[in-house]
Amino acid sequence: MSDCIFCQIAAGEIPARMIYQDESVVAFHDLHPAAPTHILIVPRHHAGDVLELAADPRGPEVMEAVLKAVPQVAAAAGVDRTGFRLINNCGEDGGQTIRHIHFHLIGGKRFGERLL
Ligand code: 5GP
Ligand code: ZN
Fold this sequence. Notes:
single chain; 5 strands; binds guanosine-5'-monophosphate
């Protein structure tokens, strides 16, 4: 998707502070961090959101790649021992602003027991 900002970041056409890359996934620092550590884990494959990915024949392999990237990204960000939150926003009520599926890995501080 040539007009998708996360496809462009994954292709290296727009700069980002990359922390991890493999053949299926890129991970980079969020432009507006919500916590001391705020990384976006982004599959290279374009799907608008988690519902689109679930309906995509490549969905399971994409989620497997994300799952395998999580420990590597957490270690690279230095939060694998201290813990973190992994968040996916879907659609308007989910607060999604970028229509390319991604997962927020946030940490570097102690979150409360309540989600919100
Ligand atoms: P969403 O609200 O869709 O779940 O999350 C989108 C995230 O992408 C936001 O946290 C926002 O700060 C981040 N973001 C938006 N544009 C850019 C960009 O060009 N570069 C980077 N690194 N992050 C971005
Ligand atoms: Zn995209």
